[in-house]
Amino acid sequence: MHSLLFNIFSTADTSCPLGRVDFSSLSQQALMEIFIQNVKYTATFKDSSESFLDIEKWPGLKLNEDGQVVEIYFAFAIALGGSVDFEAIPSTATRIGVAHANCSGEIPWGKLFNDVRYFAVDSNAFYGTIDLTIMPRNLIGLFCSINKFSGTLNFAKLPEKLAMLDVSTNELSGTIDLRRVQNMISSFTEQHLEYEQNNRDPPSDMPFGCSFQDNTFHGDVLVNDNELVAEVCPFWKNSCSHVVDADGRRKRIYNDAP
Question: Which domain of life is it from (predicted)?
């Protein structure tokens, strides 16, 4: 279907800035082809004549009964390389995974649809900032570990449903403020990963799973109640010395931990 992409871009809406494509008018097939148009390895998604397969035959995609994409999970065995166009993600997709895929580029956080529940881009070379204030409204899990993200994190407007946050092993700085988190705070467990893998809603009382390890965060980690901090290991390997709650109680962080 080489002609499909050609037709899309040759007929782009000229009323849009720079003749950008109106993604809302495109089929799910066209959107997915645009999504991977700049990856290095597309053979997995093409037939012997180098035409794109129908998306129902693409590995890593899950479609609903209406043929709409509900999950995109290109990870591990599905090599990509290059970059993907996150703006072309179909609005019906609720679980996005581009992990261990050797991809790079910046992520347009404000362009992700509000129905995205799980978003995983760990173990790549993505860069730029992570803007927690404009994340999808229904986001439950955000996994950005082992990339090249930089800058500070603004915790003032965390998505209300956010229950999992992994930003470990990046180049992030600034301070950590988890005072909006009302649940127990812990490292990730098999329970967290099970809900992510099955694209399910976690129970309301499940601990907030997180990891901020191996960045350059500094200062005190602010929390609502020290009694809710099950362990300090999510904050290791930074320049943070204590977890401090609203009553001023302090819990030491040992940054020389393994």
Answer: Eukaryota
For residues 216 and 237, give the distance between their C-alpha atoms in angstroms, rounded to a whole number.
8
CA 197 to the chain's CA centroid:
13
pLDDT digits (tens, 9 = 90+) for 222-250: 999 999 998 888 999 999 999 999 999 99
How far is Cα 94 from Cα 70, in angstroms, rounded to an integer? 6
Tell me the mean pLDDT in the region 136-143. Answer: 98
Element of type H or E holding 10:
helix 2-10
Provide the residue range defining the domain that includes 183: 23-252
Cβ atoms of 128 and 149 within 8 Å: the answer is: yes
Contact 161, 207 (CB under 8 A): no
Query: 172-201: per-residue pLDDT in tens?
Result: 999 999 999 999 999 999 999 999 999 999
- Classify residue 257: in a domain, yes or no: no
CATH number for the domain harbouring residue 181:
3.80.10.10
Give phi and psi for 115, each to the nearest 5. -80, -5
Is residue 102 in some structural domain? yes
* Residue 221 within any structural domain of the chain: yes
The helix (H) or strand (E) run that includes residue 244 is strand 239-244
